[in-house]
From TrEMBL, chain A:
It comes from Paragemmobacter amnigenus. This is NADH-quinone oxidoreductase subunit NuoF. It holds the Pfam family Complex1_51K. Its cofactor is FMN. The keyword 4Fe-4S applies. PROSITE patterns: COMPLEX1_51K_1, COMPLEX1_51K_2. Residues 420-465 form the NADH-ubiquinone oxidoreductase 51kDa subunit iron-sulphur binding domain.
Automatic annotation (TrEMBL), chain B:
Its cofactor is [2Fe-2S] cluster. CDD domains: TRX_Fd_NuoE_FDH_gamma (cd03081). Belongs to the complex I 24 kDa subunit family. It comes from the Bacteria. The keyword Iron-sulfur applies. This is Formate dehydrogenase subunit gamma. The keyword Metal-binding applies. InterPro entries: NADP_DH_HndA-like, NuoE-like, NuoE_N, Thioredoxin-like_sf.
């Protein structure tokens, strides 16, 4: 009997370890042999811990499971109260286009043979037979853009590094996924780490870089454990090392742990941190692609960007490019979170409207109250009201509505949310996390908190001041922390003016 | 119990040896020292500075920049509660207030008996099962007041 119990952090946070222990204990008690696989999560977090059992018809899902319900599972599979049917037939799974996340939740994350049996390393083998220019052209052709949020075309970044002349070049994976509402990087690293390793190896071969780093945030202990083990396995198997898969081309990598600074998700701060310095932002130019880690040409890409590279090489740029809308090509792993009924990861082609995502896929709020706002793109993303629910999910489409898709995290709030409080938090967060390099961010965020407090006390004269301050931060900050904090603040003020009107607040209280 | 500076110099020296030749080794070194001691002892800074050819101020500057590194030991258990938006949407602020009242401490403080240190964290990536906590490095999802009380009872 083959049983899958996720080792994903969200599943563990909801009791997966206890369920796994119960499976083994019950199997021992019954004297049956159970092959227990600790897989990644399928992304249906409201069903975690989601246990799967392999049957002749396919994998059958049970969830959310508790340790107490495990004995019944081994006694009578068909009539278990938590039986959900075939995993792949569940509506959440059937409606997705899983390209980047195809293997997450399916395979044993640390089994390289499992990985290869599901299409792993096909892309890398193909890339090894291509020259640098062809590899870069394939990525450019796919239309892949930075999934960290900036949306910069990945192929152009690679081209810059590939054409730069230097004795050493680097691939740096930005796994400092600090945005609230995002967990795609974490899920991928915990559920299919070899995909990221393969993507980084292709990037290295394509640009002439021989060394890679994954800058992984310390808040993800499970991901650090899996990635570290996976790199070791890949090295032993010859996927990494002096001769990648026997090609004679070298590429190796290291996992580095962050230290709790949100700003290190910004690429130049990340590079400083990786060099052992304070994580302050660097002015651009010079671009990291020309002078990055240790002043050498460096590709800095997000986890999802790099983890999408293998499927592009496995199935071809044209296949990938075929999905999506406008200039947003391919698929995007949506992370639906916060006060939502069905929260989790849903990978789909760009183009669904915000309303479809929140109401149809997410099922509205967990509290059952009306949806008031959805913050898209993390703490620096705008709050969208229901009136903007017709916005299609794409880089330009969200930009046109004074928002951003960021790392594709969506945090749903019900009508009990106080948007003035959310605006204050955005400024407070910026003040806590500012690296201090530029004045608009360092001082502006502190003044922002004070100004929101004045508005809260009934000083409506401070509203134009807040608007003015946001303009200064937006155009005067060195990086997205100070530059984008105005998005949540201004969207809260613009779309929810009632929450900033003291008279109405008092009347309501 | 406090370690003598010679003991610290020896142990930090071993950690520095293990990181010899590593590119950009200061963060891994600080993590290793904090792993060994539970914090970064002040006496470790000049030892690191000398080996890496940095000033003591530079090492202090790096260490103090990052939220993770402690100048002083934490309590026996560290309870981190997520303060970010997804957790706020599910009542995280209310749960955090409950934790502060229950423990009688504010953020970054340790209970008088030295048992629990309470710290804010901004996102544990458990945003679809919020509010989230990290208890001595172990993740916990859907933390409400009752679950929080159970966590506190569990470590006490």
């Amino acid at each position: 009997m083959k049983v899958y119990v996720p080792r994903d952090a969200a599943a563990r946070g909801l009791g997966a370890d206890e369920v796994a222990a119960a499976v083994l204990a019950e199997a021992a008690r019954r004297g049956v042999t159970v092959d227990l696989v600790r897989n990644g999560s399928r992304g249906m977090v409201w069903l975690e811990p989601l246990v799967e059992v392999e049957t002749p018809e396919g994998r059958v899902a049970f969830g959310p499971m508790t340790a107490a319900e495990v004995p019944a599972l081994l006694a009578d599979l068909k009539n278990h109260p938590k039986a959900l049917g075939l995993t792949d037939a569940l509506p959440w799974m059937a409606k997705q286009t899983r390209l980047t996340f195809a293997r997450v939740g399916v395979i044993d994350p640390l089994s390289l043979s499992d990985y290869e049996a599901h299409g792993g390393l096909v892309g890398l083998r193909r890339a090894l037979a291509m020259d640098s220019a062809a590899i870069v052209a394939e990525v450019t052709e796919s239309g892949l853009r930075g999934r960290g949020g900036a949306g910069f075309p990945t192929g152009i970044k690679w081209k810059t590094v590939a054409e730069a002349k230097a004795d050493r070049k680097y691939i740096v994976c930005n796994a400092d996924e600090g945005d609230s509402g995002t967990f795609a990087d974490r899920m991928l690293m915990e559920g299919d780490p070899f995909t990221l390793i393969e993507g980084m190896a292709i990037a290295g071969i394509g640009t002439g870089a021989t060394k890679g780093f994954v800058y992984l945030r310390s808040e993800y202990p499970d991901a650090i454990e899996v990635m570290t083990a996976a790199v070791e396995i890949a090295r032993k198997a010859g996927v990494l090392g002096a001769s990648v898969l026997g090609s004679g081309k070298a590429f190796d990598m290291e996992i580095r742990t962050g230290a709790g600074a949100y700003v290190c998700g910004e690429e130049t701060s990340l590079l400083n941190s990786l060099e052992g310095k304070r994580g302050t932002v660097r002015a651009k130019p010079p671009l990291p692609a020309l002078q990055g880690f240790m002043g050498k040409p460096t590709v800095v890409n997000n986890v999802i960007s790099l983890a999408t590279v293998p499927v592009i090489f496995e199935r071809g740029a044209a296949f990938y490019k075929d999905f999506g809308l406008g200039r947003s090509r391919g698929t995007i792993p949506l992370q639906i979170a916060g006060n939502v009924k069905f929260g989790g990861l849903f990978e789909v082609a760009f183009g669904l409207t915000l309303g479809e995502i929140v109401d149809s896929i997410g099922g509205g709020t967990a509290s059952g109250r009306p949806v008031k706002a959805v913050q898209v793109g993390g703490p620096l993303g705008a709050y969208f009201p229901r009136a903007l629910f017709d916005t299609p999910f794409g880089y330009e489409e969200f930009g046109a509505k004074e928002g951003l898709i960021g790392h594709a995290g969506l945090v749903v709030f019900d009508d009990s949310a106080d948007m003035l409080k959310q605006a204050r938090f955005a400024m407070e967060f910026c003040a806590i996390e500012s690296c201090g390099k530029c004045t608009p961010c360092r001082i502006g965020a502190v003044r922002g908190v004070e100004t929101v407090d004045r508005i809260a006390k009934g000083d409506t004269g401070a509203i134009p001041l807040l608007t003015d301050l946001c303009n200064t931060m937006k155009s005067g900050s060195l990086c997205a922390l100070g530059g984008f904090t105005p998005y949540p603040v201004m969207s809260a003020l613009t779309h929810f003016p009632d929450d900033f009107a003291p008279a109405m607040k008092e009347a309501a209280e | 119990m406090t370690q003598t500076s010679t003991e610290i110099a020896a142990r930090v020296g071993e950690i520095l040896d293990a990181h010899e030749g590593m590119e950009g080794s200061l963060l891994p070194i600080l993590h290793a020292i904090q792993h060994a001691y539970g914090y970064v002892p002040r006496d470790a800074l000049p030892v690191i500075a000398k080996r890496l050819n940095l000033t003591r101020a530079e090492v202090h500057g790096v260490m103090s920049f990052y939220h993770d590194f402690r100048e002083d030991p934490a309590g026996r258990h560290v309870l981190k509660l997520c303060r970010a938006e997804a957790c706020q949407a599910m009542g995280g602020d209310r749960v955090a207030k409950h934790a502060q009242d229950r423990l009688g401490i504010e953020w970054h403080e340790t209970t008088k008996d030295g048992q629990i240190t309470l710290e804010p964290v901004f996102c544990l990536g458990l945003c679809a099962c919020a509010p989230a906590a990290l208890v001595d490095g172990k993740v916990v999802g859907r933390v409400d007041e009752a679950r929080l009380d159970a966590i506190i009872e569990g470590v006490r």
